[in-house]
Amino acid sequence: MTKSLPSLRIHQTRHPLLYEVNTRVLLTELSRSAGSRVTLGTIPDRLLDDWASLGFDAIWLMGVWKTGRIGLEIATTHPDLAAEYRKVLPDFTTADVGGSPYSISAYEVSTELGGEKELARLRKRLAERGLGLVLDFVCNHTARDHAWTKEHPEYYIQGSPELLEQEPWAWFEVSTKKGKAVLALGRDPMFPPWTDTAQINHMHAGAREALVSVLRQIAGLCDGVRCDMAMLMLRGVFLVTWDKKVMSEEGGVLQTEFWGDAITNVRKSRPDFLFVAEAYWDLEWALQQLGFDYTYDKRLYDRLRYEGAVSVRNHLKAEMTFQTHSLRFIENHDEPRAAMAFSSEAWHSAAAVVTLTVPGMAMLHDGQMDGRAVKVPVQLSRRPQEAVSEQIRRFYRRLLVCLGDASFRQGDWRMLSVRPAWHDNPTWENYLAYCWQRGDVCERIVVVNYAPHSGQCYIDLPMAEVDGPALEFRDLMSDAAYVRERSSLVSKGMYFDLPGYGFHIFALSSAR
Q1: Host domain of residue 439
Q2: Structural domain contains residue 4
């Protein structure tokens, strides 16, 4: 089994940065640019160098696994999907469809992308730059034509011909070694079933053993996994979703949590292997307790997008253990592009500053740093050409330089106190303020007016650790510098008057 390398950045920081890449789209664009086929093993050095220079710690290659004939057929012929494709690509053809990356027929690297040997070569090249490789693990379901559906239908939720007739949208028939069987389509209980998937029975002992074996196999190919819809495998969620259809082969229901068993098993041989959970429904803490290093923080995303500064500030008051194991984002392949969700460049920038400068892991999505506006269906292997927003690109690149400092990489985070600038001025409530420190020394201060209008406030700053009668606040995002007398800061705090969605990232030092 391949071992991860101790020099990987992901193991050397308390505030890692993950970059999600749509593998099929990337290789399509690189091939078009090169005028010849580019695969995993021939991705140009210049691109890997760029990822490393931007400060990423790991690259999540989304969509490397083999997808089956049935999934491709559904992805190509489904009328709703076809309409979505045409909105994104007016010149869409069926050649642009690769099937859903989350309808996996086998955990084999797609030969169209270069296969397992080329993935290994790419992983080595990433590791030479300190970058880890993260791949998908889709545990809740498989493709409908995965080998298990024919060889081990008992691994799946099983129905009956009567159920298939009553609910044809929720079940499908498959030919197995023992004859015909009716299996459930994979599902999230909040939505209709996924028509190109088969639902695994996580209460079945044989299915669990097979899944853990697959996970060990994946662990030999990469440095971590992003676990799709991880909360669906929690015992309580699964039993409510599937009720009486989850009996194991022994005639009972397994009492242990799948994730606790699986993570423990993998870490016997790979103690540093990274586990990231896509998680919702306030079940993130439960998954962290089962061993996940990081869990999606969709709640922060929703509060940044819909609720405002007070809600964000309250969210950031959660236990620090929870905070440091949360994965923050304002965009991924499931969400609208940040340029659309946060509809002005000022709002987009402010949301990104918060997301990338609070504790935990931060994630950026390919195209986010260019201001791309079109959300591409995961079934497509091509995306439209879009103009780059040079302003957004410059903003992200400067922000990532800031995040490379040891204050963010190795420091401790704490919230700062915000007060009204004067009586009857409620705009102070729109401010988010916090610092990053190493030891007792506050080295970076982040201040954001998270509202579309100007606001004023006083912020109490931690100055005791910085010597001298005056302090310098150097804004790393604008080159501005401010000198303030210590005595005034101690007695009143620091006054701020920022425009809508204005922000500072200060380096704090003694004024000379």
Answers
A1: 412-510
A2: no
- pLDDT tens digit string along 334-362? 999 999 999 999 999 999 999 999 999 99
Quickly list DSSP for 59-99: EEEE--EEE-HHHHHHHHH-HHHHHHHHHH-TT--GGGB--
* Residues 353 and 447 occupy one common structural domain: no
Q: What angle do CA 184, 186, 187 make, to 5 degrees?
A: 115
Q: Does residue 368 sit in the same domain as residue 296?
A: yes
Same domain, 388 and 434: no
> Kind of pairing, strands 224-227 and 274-277?
parallel
Q: Report strand pairing: 179-184 vs 197-199.
A: unpaired
- End-of-domain residue from the set 356, 381, 408: 408
Residue 224 CA to residue 61 CA, distance in Å, equals 11
DSSP 269: T
pLDDT of residue 479: 86
Length of the chain: 512
Residue 489 to residue 474: CA distance in whole angstroms: 16
Distance CA 215, CA 211 (A): 6
Within-domain flag for 222:
yes
- Measured CA to CA, the distance from residue 395 to residue 351 in angstroms comes to 12
The pTM of the whole model exceeds 0.90: yes
Does the pLDDT at position 232 exceed 50?
Answer: yes
Task: Give one DSSP letter per residue of 280-345, joined into a string.
Answer: -TT-HHHHHHTT-SEEE-HHHHHIIIII-HHHHHHHTTS-HHHHHTEEE-S--TTSPPHHHHS-SH
456 phi and psi angles, rounded to 5 deg:
-130, 150
SS3 388: coil
What pLDDT, in 10s, does the model give residues 474-489? 999 998 999 988 888 8
Q: What is the pLDDT of residues 111-167, one digit of tens each?
A: 999 999 999 999 999 999 999 999 999 999 999 999 999 999 999 999 999 999 999
In the chain, how many domains are there? 2
Task: Report the run of H or E that residue 432 belongs to, with start and end.
Answer: strand 431-438
Take residue 88 and report the two structure tokens written for it: 């994104």
According to the model, what pLDDT value does residue 31 have?
A: 97
Report the alpha-carbon distance of residue 184 to residue 156 in Å, rounded. 7
User: Given this model, what pLDDT does residue 2 score?
Assistant: 46
- Amino acid letter, residue 486: R
Q: How far apart are CA 253 and CA 267, in angstroms?
A: 25
Residues 402 and 419 in one domain: no
Query: Which has the closest alpha carbon to 199: 179, 181, 212, 215?
Result: 181
Same domain as 276, residue 417: no
Of 408, 426, 443, the last residue of a domain is: 408
Phi, psi of 466 (to 5 degrees): -105, 125
